[in-house]
Amino acid sequence: MENKIDFGKPEKYQLIIWLRQPNEASFYVYSKESPDTGYYEELSLSSTSLFTESLKEAVFNNKYLILGYENTNILLASGFYTFVPEDIYRANEDEKDSFFRFNFENIDHKKILSDEVKICNIINLFEIEKTLYDFLQRTFPYARYTHYITPLLRYFSKQRIIGESGRVFIRISDRDLSVFCFRFDRIEAVNTFLCNDVNDAAYFILTLWEKLRFDRLLDGLHVAGTSDKKSELITILSRFIENVIPVSNPFPGKNPTEIPFDIQAYLDDN
């Protein structure tokens, strides 16, 4: 990707570090004035080492990551997250671990973090390995942590029409699938599935569609993502559902396709 960043003046820029366990990570450097023309790079991580150890080596071997940026933002792609209504959470903030443990049992070596999704009146609780969190805190002590589902949910919430009956949004990547279901003015369900095969992705979507009783003729199914699988998935789903619609990238016609949809949604949200 073309480098339009003056790394000699890092204080002018924002840094996003996108972490996707077990062995994927990348970063994006951009200016607030022009978030669609930054510098994106995949990090080379070991497939055999533990994620934290491999990330340490990659960070210290990459001169761009340890510069003095105005802000550092860490975007975590973890499948372990849960939602709590905002009013309940605010009245019981000391019970963060208990809320998370309700859905996930083993959190002894996890740090539980939170995001506010104000447009939906919910709090997104998500986990990060304590060893990974400790390393990131030492290396990027002023970093802001965001779970990848949060900007996606905000972005899709803005796309729907208030009061409409049913609408489902899909975000597909090369390794997983996230599904966001809305009915009238509320969230019906949000779920993430690990899948490498487009047919498996279609099966998960159609099963959830049927289980939640969406109408295959009237309700809308919107597919987003920068993965090559997006077009193929739309073709398969169109055989079973009438209204299957591709979702434009947050920066249509401007942002290079190699910048992942998750990062584009984050940029749109900030």
Report on the architecture of this protein.
The structure is a single chain. The protein is an alpha/beta fold and 270 residues long. Helix content is 28%, strand content 33%. The chain is built from 8 helices and 13 strands. The protein has helices spanning 51-60, 86-91, 96-101, 130-139, 149-159, 198-211, 229-237, 261-269; strands at 14-20, 24-31, 34-42, 71-76, 81-85, 110-117, 122-129, 144-147, 166-172, 176-183, 186-194, 220-224, 243-246. A 5-stranded mixed sheet has the order 3-2-1-4-8, covered by helices on one side. Strands 11-10-9-12-13 form a 5-stranded mixed sheet, with helices on both faces. It has a 3-stranded antiparallel sheet with strand order 5-7-6. A hairpin with a 2-residue loop joins strand 10 and strand 11. Helix 5 (149-159) packs across helix 8 and helix 6 (198-211) packs across helix 7. The longest helix has 14 residues, at 198-211. The chain starts with 13 loop residues before the first strand and ends with a helix. The model has no long low-confidence stretch (mean pLDDT 89).
Largest sheet: number of strands, sense, barrel closure: 5 strands, mixed
Oligomeric grouping of the chains:
single chain
**Rg (CA only):** 19 Å
Helix tally equals 8
How much is the average pLDDT?
89
Structural class: alpha/beta
